[in-house]
Amino acid sequence: MQPKQTILLVEDEIEPAEMLANYLEMNNFNVLMAHDGLKALELIEKHASDIHLAVLDIMVPNVDGKEICSVIRNHPVMSDIPVIFLTAKDKEKDEIEGLELGADDYISKPASLKLVQAHIESLLRRQHPQNSKWIQHGDLFLDTSGKDLYYKDHRVDLTSTEYAIAEIFFQNPKRVYSRQEILEHIGGEDRFVFDRTVDVHIKNLRLKLGEASDMIKTYRGLGYGMNRELL
């Protein structure tokens, strides 16, 4: 089993905070939780060397999330850890200011527990790629453990074949796959069918991706892959 990584969670709404903390702990994380900014600063002082990532609600009492982010970014031990801001949907100004302060990402509330986990896993994967089951490209999140694909906070309902195609694209985003290579990967009866079968699967995958359909690109004369211009 991989060693647990520690998340600093700062959220003043007690019930959602406890739900998220419990969920993360069930998914092999340690969670240090604070419901106000002063408690968060205490946890930083005591556990700085143990914290791998911080999830900060912007509007917490006493010391707000932006000030906590500044403390983290100027901390001798924690300066390079990923920081995620939780923000209300109508707080675009806060989101922009948060990113300017050095936050790596932000999530609009309310957000599903699995979406928050996906953002956390994605950021940690950049530092420790071998420890993560999530792969992110844009607003798409691939769960290689659960075999699911999410667009923002919505699960995309894929067939097993469509998921298999998405997975090889996500795992090798700079590679272009020929139809034959895709057929060999997805296996099953499809490997005995004309390679145009792949075109149908790609078309259906794009339809299900909706607004994110342009992440899958046709490379004329070569095959298919992730749109490298959007990565």
UniProtKB/TrEMBL annotation:
Top-level taxonomy? Bacteria, Pseudomonadati, Balneolota, Balneolia, Balneolales
- PROSITE patterns xrefs: OMPR_PHOB, RESPONSE_REGULATORY
One GO CC annotation? cytosol
By what name is this protein known?
DNA-binding response regulator
Q: Which SMART domains match?
A: REC, Trans_reg_C
Q: What are the residue boundaries of the OmpR/PhoB-type domain, all occurrences included?
A: 132-228
Q: Which PANTHER family match?
A: REGULATOR OF RPOS, TWO-COMPONENT RESPONSE REGULATOR ORR33
Q: Name one GO molecular function term.
A: transcription cis-regulatory region binding
UniProt source species: Rhodohalobacter barkolensis
Q: Which GO terms describe its biological process?
A: regulation of DNA-templated transcription
4-aspartylphosphate modifications at: D57
DNA-binding region(s), chain positions: 132-228
Origin superkingdom = Bacteria
UniProt entry keywords in alphabetical sequence: DNA-binding, Phosphoprotein, Transcription, Transcription regulation, Two-component regulatory system
Which Pfam families does the annotation name? Response_reg (PF00072), Trans_reg_C (PF00486)
> Response regulatory domain: from which residue to which, for each copy?
6-124
